[in-house]
Every structure is written in C-alpha cells, then in structure tokens.
Amino acid sequence: MSDPLTEQGLFDAPPMGEQERMVEAMLFASSQVLTLREMQARMPHGCDPAEALVTLRKRYEGRGVQLVKVGDSYGFRTAPDLGHLMQKEVVEQRKLSRAAIETLAIVAYHQPVTRAEIEEIRGVAVSRGTVDQLLELDWIRLGRRRMTPGRPVTFVVTDHFLEHFGLESARDLPGLKELRAAGLLDNRPLPGILSGGSEDEAAPEGQSELFED
Length: 213
Known about the structure:
By secondary structure, the protein is of the alpha+beta class. It has 10 helices and 6 strands; from the N terminus they run ααβααββαβααββααα.
C-alpha cells in the first residue's frame, strides 16, 4: 500500500502567483478572518500561505481594500479613508401609538386646530409626548395663533406629511376607508370624526371647506 506522504511529494506546489490567487480567493470569500493554518489546510500540499500573504499585502497597498492582520488571522478590510462610503442609511419604521394616530388625524382633517380643540374632539387630554413625537417626525408644525382669549397656537400638517403620503395638499386627504385599507387606521372609530355618521359621511366631497388655504 502506497504512502500518502510519498504520493504528495510527487507533486510540486503551485507557483507562488497561483498561491496568491488562492489566498486572495479564500480571504474574499470568507465572512471571517482566517489563520495561516486554516488557509494552509485548504491549499495543495507544499503551499506557503505566509509567503503569499507578504506579496499579496504589498499588491493591495493604496487600494480601496487592504489586507490586514487581526491577531493571528488575516482578512480584507476597507481602506480607512474610504470607510464613509460604506455607511448605509436605513429608514427606521416607527409605529405610532393610537393617541398619536388620533391626534394626527384630527390635525389633518380639522387644521388649523388648537390643543384644546384636539382634546375636545378626542374626549381625553393630549399628552405632551404625543405632540412632541409628531413634531419630531415633522408631520405637524405650529400654525398661526388663534385670535381668541389667550391666543392659543394651532397645529397644521407639514409638507413632509403631505410628501410622505403622496398628497399635493391637505384637500387630497383620503377618506377613512382608504386610510384603513392602507393600514394606517384600525377598525375602531376615531373619536370626534365618526360621531353621528357613517364612514362615507366622515369624508364628504366638500371636506376641503375644513381646511385653510
């Protein structure tokens, strides 16, 4: 029976250029850094990944990615001065509370509206946190003060709100059925909006009269 070591000795190691390609391929394909032992175990008998790494490291100097040593392992990393290109902007989905949805709907359908008027329609007090959340999202903003005792500020929806929902103006606001179909409202009636009427009556064709030009 032949000796495996003897058989292996019959074959020469691949040229160093080919060994560099092997090391390069392994490091690019691996999601983690690799040690010399791990690379050597994957390469043909007689290969020297350490020598291949030396020349490969020089080849990548000044490139967009660099060959770096991390402890006893090696891997490719983005050049430090190009790290900003790898930043990814993610749109964070933030689910509004029912109180925020009700407040937003009241502002949209009754603007300009004061806090007291919102509370009267909802039947409960409006917490500062609810209003702050809508202001932070830039979906509502402060409007003109009402010419009544105390001159309370009013709230109106913003252009960002209109853009987010694909509206040209507040006059284009959908009816409640459309809002529910879009998943923006649940099936429970909103206080002060559906009182005394059906959903179709809640958004009459003349609803634009509720809004300020």
